[in-house]
Write a structure and sequence with these properties.
alpha+beta; Alpha-Beta Plaits; globular
Length: 368
């Protein structure tokens, strides 16, 4: 039997950390609780006709997909509830085939004027904020190569629209947004999944969904008018398992987030910064043969096993864990990380890693 979780959020969501403070982070109770809560999530999604596996593209960053932020001057939008006209326009663009996470929030810079403009210039964007200080940001992931330009054309005549910033790679602006924006919704083809205003216990005990009197739409945006089916998932489960984490250089600051992922994999674990990293010579030879083009793109075609071990160790503490999987049949626990390597053009590399909790060791499975 195997079980996998796309991602766990203990970076912005404090629920698991609060529970861990009571039970102890390395307790049997915490290990079981994460798995049990994920089972509840899958059951709630299934009750809405949604397969959790279909949400992977919305929750795990993809190396060949784009991420972007739409930027709006709130003072130039006639509606006092400025998100409404923004999403009325955005929902007209989104198709019925894509899978995306949408985040949103305000970028208010009155205490540090010019901050947004400097951030945009650092990304190479030509957006002019025109000296305004209050902006509304909508962030989308899993976009196609053509989506940013198409979205820009779609919003060009929209009052208050300032532009779109491609944030497919790391930047100061992307890091700032990771601290500001909140999850809006997940769109999986023609279905929109939002965070409910109740938790799982309330859903079970009070049958909240039956009492809502129609399709759930806590955000109040015109989803149905644009052909989307809507549903809402208990806020405690949504926050932990359905929140997309905008990547940032965490430099060890988000270690608790990694620990919760490891806690799901096994009761025995420690911080990844203290784990030994192993790249077997035969494994490296295989990767050079089968993934030679990938290694050449990032200038690693001549790398030794020891050098690759050092690279993985340096990068692993500043990255998030994705595709966490327990395979009980083969006794394997594994996860992926995505690292960004600098160059004339940055390149993303996904590393699949096996975790050996009994020895607190990580071994490389493959890269792509």
């Amino acid at each position: 039997m195997s079980k996998s979780i796309h991602t766990i959020d203990s970076r912005e969501n404090m629920e698991l950390l609060t529970v861990a403070a009571f039970f102890g982070i390395q307790s049997d109770a915490m290990h079981s609780l994460i798995s049990d809560w994920h089972d509840l999530l899958e059951a709630e999604l299934q009750s809405e006709g949604i397969d959790y596996r279909e949400l992977k593209a919305a929750l795990v960053p993809a190396k060949k997909k784009r991420e972007a932020a739409l930027i709006f001057d709130t003072a130039a939008i006639p509606d006092a509830w400025y998100p409404l006209p923004v999403f009325e326009k955005l929902l007209q663009y989104l198709d019925r085939k894509s899978v995306n996470s949408v985040l949103m929030g305000d970028f208010i810079e009155r205490s540090s004027p010019g901050c947004l403009q400097r951030c945009l210039e650092e990304t190479g964007s030509r957006i002019d904020t025109d000296g305004t200080h209050d902006h509304f940001i909508v962030y989308l992931n899993n976009l196609s190569k053509s989506d940013p330009a198409n979205l820009d054309r779609h919003f060009r005549e929209f009052a208050g629209y300032r532009g779109i910033a491609d944030l497919s790679y790391g930047s100061v602006f992307k890091t700032l947004l990771s601290t500001m924006l909140i999850p809006g919704f997940i769109k999986v083809r023609d279905t929109v999944i939002m965070e409910a205003e109740y938790d799982y216990a309330e859903w079970i005990l009070d049958k909240k969904k039956e009492s809502l009197g129609g399709p759930a739409n806590p955000l109040g945006f015109p989803f149905a008018e644009n052909g989307f089916r809507t549903t809402a998932i208990s806020q405690d489960l949504y926050g932990i398992f359905l929140s997309y984490k905008i990547e940032r250089e965490c430099d060890g600051m988000d270690e608790a987030d990694q620990l919760m992922g490891l806690n799901f994999l096994d009761r025995l674990f420690g911080p990844l910064r203290t784990a030994a990293v192993e790249v077997a010579p035969r494994k490296l030879a295989y990767i050079k043969q089968e993934k030679g083009d990938t290694l050449r793109r990032v200038g690693l075609e001549e790398i030794t096993a020891g050098e690759l071990e050092e690279l993985i160790h340096d990068k692993i503490t500043s990255n998030y864990l994705y595709n966490l999987e327990i395979n009980e049949q083969y006794g394997v626990t594994k996860f992926n990380i995505m690292i960004e390597l600098p160059g004339d053009k940055p390149y993303k590399l996904v590393l699949a890693l096996k975790y050996h909790p009994e020895h607190h060791r990580i071994s490389l499975i493959t890269c792509f």
